[in-house]
């Protein structure tokens, strides 16, 4: 939680948040400006909250990039319901966009989703089911740092009893198959967090 616009903006840009709850009336940098600057570089869902309830204020907030607008005072139940609805919509949109893609590309690495074929250049790369799903998850989230527990839940399932270090093992397997000697690995380690494929 941040109590002024400048530090809030820095935090919003420094990490990948599921959503941002943004007050309009912030010292140093107001909520509209924070929202505008975040929108220049990120698509993080934003709910703007304020005591101002005029149509002009609501329109201004939405025009600056907010996804929703809630007027104070409000019931916490309403805020949570709006947040759930927003995250659900974003998730569905993301799944629909991903589902429409039958081919995923990262540099010269290609995944043909329909037949589960992985190629680097002209070479077909043989991957196990888990290796394929892990690589696909990383390639569908280029430039997003994915924590080990997130990868574990996506690839092995939410109720998996597998330890998070199995992710490290499988990343090593994939690197051995897709990387080329003397070249940087396509899958980068983010120390203490997880992995990312950067464009």
From TrEMBL:
Gene3D superfamilies: 3.40.50.2300, 6.10.250.690, Winged helix-like DNA-binding domain superfamily/Winged helix DNA-binding domain. Residues 101-199 form the OmpR/PhoB-type domain. SMART domains: REC, Trans_reg_C. Keywords: DNA-binding, Phosphoprotein, Transcription, Transcription regulation, Two-component regulatory system. The modification 4-aspartylphosphate is found at residue 23. Residues 101-199 bind DNA. The keyword Zinc does not apply. Residues 1-87 form the Response regulatory domain. GO terms for molecular function: phosphorelay response regulator activity; transcription cis-regulatory region binding. It holds the Pfam family Trans_reg_C. It comes from the Bacteria. The keyword Cell division does not apply. One of its GO terms (cellular component) is protein-DNA complex. One of its GO terms (biological process) is regulation of DNA-templated transcription. This is Two component system, response regulator.
């Amino acid at each position: 939680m941040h109590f002024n616009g400048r530090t809030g903006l820095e935090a919003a840009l420094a990490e990948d948040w599921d959503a941002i709850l943004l007050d309009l009336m912030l010292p140093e940098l107001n909520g509209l400006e924070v929202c505008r600057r975040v929108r220049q570089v990120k698509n993080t869902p934003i709910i703007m909250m304020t005591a101002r309830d005029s149509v002009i204020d609501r329109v201004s907030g939405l025009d600056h990039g907010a996804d929703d607008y809630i007027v104070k005072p409000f019931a916490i139940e309403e805020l949570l319901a709006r947040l759930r609805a927003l995250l659900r919509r974003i998730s569905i949109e993301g799944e629909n966009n991903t589902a429409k893609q039958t081919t995923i590309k990262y540099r010269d690495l290609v995944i043909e989703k329909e037949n589960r074929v992985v190629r680097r250049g002209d070479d077909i790369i043989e991957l196990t089911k888990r290796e394929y799903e892990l690589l696909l998850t990383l390639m569908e989230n280029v430039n997003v740092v994915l924590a080990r527990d997130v990868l574990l839940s996506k690839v092995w399932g939410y109720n998996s009893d597998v330890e998070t270090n199995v992710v490290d093992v499988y990343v090593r397997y994939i690197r051995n198959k897709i990387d080329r000697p003397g070249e940087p690995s396509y899958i980068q380690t983010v120390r203490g967090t997880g992995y990312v494929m950067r464009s």
